[in-house]
Amino acid sequence: MEEAGDSTFPNWPELRRLFTYDELVGKVLQGRYEVVRRLGAGGMGVVFLARHVHLDKLFALKIISARYLDEPEIGRRFLLEAQAASKIDHPNVVGITDFGPPEAGPTFFVMEYLEGEDLARTLAREGPLAWPRALHIVTQIARALVAAHQRGVVHRDIKPQNCLRVGRDGDPDFIKVLDFGLAKILSATHKSTWTVGGSPGYIAPEIYRGGRTDHRVDIFALGVVLHTLLLGRLPAQSPGDVELPPHAPVLHTADLPPPLRAIIDRATAEDPERRYPSADALLAALTEARATISSPSGHALKDMPERPRPARRRGLLLAASLGGALAVAIAVASTREASGDAAQRASEPAGARMDTSEAREAPADTVAGIPEAPAGSAKDPAVASSSGESPAAPATSAPLAAGPSAATRPPEPATSAATPAALEDMSEATLPVPPASGTDTPRPAKPLAPFDPAAAKAQLERRAADVRACKADSSFRTMTTTVRLAGTVSVSPRGKATVTLPPGYDVSPCLARLVAGTRFRPSLDGGEFAFTFLL
Ligand SMILES: Nc1ncnc2c1ncn2[C@@H]1O[C@H](COP(=O)(O)OP(=O)(O)OP(=O)(O)O)[C@@H](O)[C@H]1O
């Protein structure tokens, strides 16, 4: 607070007491909200944790800052904005449930209490985020904006600090957007330049210019947020508002996948006319980018960190990236447990798949309307396979031998028992050899041999590029040097593998998936081998 250092202020101790509202702790507001403790303070108000004495439920109370107590117009607008925000009713928007009376005491409103971490703190702990994760987060914020703009509410202060990561349904990156509409109160009531409302770096140029503004200020800010999440700093080399960990990598715009660069460029265009015309359009662009960008290892969204990938979505993503008959075969094979429309959607062109009405209505725990499985769900193929319960592992040990590359390999028939894990592993040269064309006679099965650790090791070594890409979701992501992790890979007789690392090192979800998804040669006995993962 800028007044804090002003020693000439005549009644500073009294004012300070008022600013912090500390005397409220332990009091019961309106006969129902018992103030438990202060959670923090921002430009407009002070936030307290409170317990509803009748419901015995926790809420967050935002009380208008004491410096505005003598400005009834600000108090009135504070309530009006909270009232408008309460109507947004979207899973990615903090729920506003009640208001304090404007006639007695300081104005306040009541929100759902959220336990989580804002994105600025996440960046400070972890450094720039891998693009699939950043995209997942920004897509949710875009959904929140779609819902808000539909109800005529413009946020005006979208920034990492106003987006809380709360764990939900196994998703640690479920986002709740706070503070809809509050930033404009000051600009509407205080005409001086320092009260433009919003946060430097995220404020659209037209706000600075004092001209007409609309919902496109949020599109600008969300473009800046995407840039900040991916690179750890604001665009145009501006100093960031986010502290990064000391060893965070220095990344440049050129390091970003081109579709994300294009989205950032368009969303943050100086001229609002050149930005996406609506949050819907931005959401559609994000969804399109998600479906089409390949990860560094060349697999579409293969390495989505910390997110379970249900069979249905995996099938769709692969189908979108591979196209043609192969795509249809994959979609059919991987949607055995899903409803029948997935395969049909997979065969549609990418642009037709995401219709904006679906985007608008999609609940926040879905990706393009496709429900996510909770973490650890038995339907998550990665989990199933790593626990040895591969849902459709070949019942017979068909001989596995080096086959053609993914580009030249003929598609498997749609009715094949290929597992999602096997489909993911299409780059591996270990798929069953299809019968030679013109021959209907299946090859006789070779007898199983004892486990060959050297051959298994060589097989994993061929996936060096995929292993390196797993750095993005590991705790070593911020290290610029190559990390060597000595692990042990155990392979079952059926060729399913798990990896263990020395005590104190966690196997990242990406690495676990990669090893579990590699189809090692079935053997008589199974076995293990030492492997150094180079990340
Ligand atoms: N619903 C909520 N549940 C839990 N914590 C909350 C909730 N709303 C706000 N907070 C926390 O209260 C603190 C103050 O929030 P507030 O929104 O007032 O400030 P800010 O966003 O940091 O600043 P500004 O309002 O100037 O943008 C922050 O740490 C915020 O995470």
TrEMBL record:
Residues 381-422 have a biased composition (Low complexity). The keyword Endoplasmic reticulum does not apply. ATP binds at K62. Residues 337-450 are annotated as: Disordered. It comes from the Bacteria. SMART domains: S_TKc (SM00220). Gene3D superfamilies: Phosphorylase Kinase, domain 1 (3.30.200.20), Transferase(Phosphotransferase) domain 1 (1.10.510.10). Keywords: ATP-binding, Kinase, Nucleotide-binding, Transferase. GO terms for molecular function: kinase activity. Pfam families: Pkinase. InterPro entries: Kinase-like_dom_sf, Prot_kinase_dom, Protein_kinase_ATP_BS. CDD domains: STKc_PknB_like. This is Protein kinase. It comes from Nannocystis bainbridge.
